[in-house]
Design a protein that fits this description.
binds beta-D-glucopyranose, alpha/beta, 266 residues, Nucleotidyltransferase, domain 5, 9 helices, 2 domains, 15 strands
């Protein structure tokens, strides 16, 4: 498939690899999401092989494949591996995925990708000032925007909270491991968000990740002075934003200008 404005995009997570075809005009997936379990150990070779399998399903033939990845990523190179195999560190993910699949790749941190999607099509649209998106999944990812411009690779899930990194107590994985119901979990999440608010004073905090579909079960636990809302694109934000990052040239003109300036130097 290779129609204008369509991008094949992946979201690699600790538990699953998801892919879909993103329409950059609509800012949405136009196919069902294709999902495979993340292999363990989640090495470059094992993940690359899964991605190659999925690309075949989509019959992609038009340029860079997009990919959100759970690591600090600069110029395609991974600099952390909290929830994937440590052998990714210092690996150029774009080069490795191209070697394994035969397709060129654009790789970005998964939370930064989700943030880009929310700022382009979702609840961050046209927001100025400091906007923070947090993804709550196996880990906690963060994407920070100042006047619409991305500050890439913030890792607010890894700041110390209650004597450990925050994602170990308030990610959705931690909620399940600790057998907390949504309200109990959100009470602690609220504390973490207040702590983050103290550090950054964001104008807006957008919560994404798989758990964003359950917003109604926990949003009542948040303090009234927390400027927190749910991700409009729910858990699809990562796939959609990675596609925007990979192919800003395919965006409609008004969005193109905004996104290219938001990403300059990032
Ligand atoms: C990783 C981040 C990632 C987040 C969500 C964290 O453990 O360090 O890079 O964005 O998980 O996947």
């Amino acid at each position: 498939m290779g129609r204008k404005n369509l991008v094949l995009s992946f979201d690699v997570g600790a538990t699953g690899i998801k892919a879909g075809m993103v329409d950059l005009v609509k800012g949405e997936l136009i196919t069902d999401k294709y999902k495979l379990a993340t292999p363990h150990p989640a090495t470059p070779k094992a993940i690359g092989n899964k991605i190659r399998e999925i690309i075949k399903v989509f019959k992609w033939d038009s340029g860079k494949v997009a990919c959100g990845f759970p690591s600090v990523v600069r110029d395609g190179v991974c600099y952390s591996a909290a929830n994937i195999d440590s052998s990714w560190v210092h690996i150029n993910a774009e080069e490795v995925l191209e070697e394994i699949t035969g397709y060129p790749f654009s790789v970005i941190n998964d939370a930064d990708a989700a943030g880009i999607a929310e700022m382009t099509y979702g609840n961050g649209l046209d927001e100025t000032g400091t906007v923070l998106l947090l993804t709550l999944g196996t880990g906690i990812g963060s994407a920070l925007f100042i006047d619409g411009k991305l500050v890439p690779n913030t890792e607010l899930g890894h700041i110390e909270f209650r004597g450990d990194i925050a994602e170990n107590s308030v990610s959705n994985r931690a909620r399940k491991d600790r057998m907390l119901d949504y309200a109990e979990w959100a009470e602690e999440l609220n504390e973490y968000l207040l702590y983050v608010k103290k550090i950054l004073s964001p104008k807006l905090i957008i919560l994404g990740g798989g758990v964003s579909k359950r917003w109604n079960l926990y949003s009542h636990m948040f303090s009234p002075d927390l400027p927190v809302i749910n991700a409009k694109l729910y858990n699809d934000a990562g796939i959609i934003g990675a596609a925007v990052y990979a192919h800003p040239e395919l965006l409609p003109d008004d969005l193109k200008i905004k996104v290219i300036s938001a990403l300059t130097d990032s």
